[in-house]
Design a protein that fits this description.
The protein has seven helices and six strands; from the N terminus they run E-H-H-E-H-E-H-E-H-H-E-E-H. By secondary structure, it is α/β, with parallel strands linked by helices. Helix 4 links the parallel strand 3 and strand 4. The longest helix is centred in the middle third of the chain and has 24 residues. The chain is globular.
Length: 224
Amino acid sequence: MNKLDHVAFIMDGNGRWGKKRNKGRNFGHINGVKTVKKIVESSIKLNIPVITFYVFSTENWKRPRGEINFLFKLIINYFNNELNNVISNGIKINIIGNLNKLPLKVKSSLKKVIKLTRNNDKIIVNLAVNYGSKSEIINALKKLKNRKKIDIKSLRKELYTKNLPDPDILIRTGGHKRLSNFMLWQLAYAEIYFLDKLWPDFSEKDLKKIVINYKKVKRNFGSI
């Protein structure tokens, strides 16, 4: 049975979910946050040590300004309302991505959460915010530019995920079959599950089904 250390999620379909109900994209984002909360709770029950959510990519800056501001407001409001629950449930929040470009209020909110949850050990929840895998790899190489030897081990130490196991599973909802510049290095040997259902419809039952399937998969890592 395969050991499960890390599950990553591309939460696609929030906007489409809201529009299908004639309530707009932002309504979908609100319900997407509710699904995040449910999946964190489910992951704790399933004893998954690390999960990662693709929250906001470096390409998402191309979206309408109103939607971007709404997404950032959702992040701030979520932690304003849920911080005590996050702490009491032993959830450690970690951010991967470039925080420097984020609005000051968002940056301050995230740094506060990181600080207040740093000693929690029930589950690590990574939020990929202003994250792009290509930029992550380029930045890692820049840090290694004066080294005579660059290898897998040295580059890995310069990634945002340097202290974390690589994802064993990637789950993408929304029907699209692509990685969208997400953890390209770390997903090299992940088992990838593409689902047609939109993120707000993703459930604990769906996660359980994928975990059960994963544990039965024969993983060769290049051997036979």
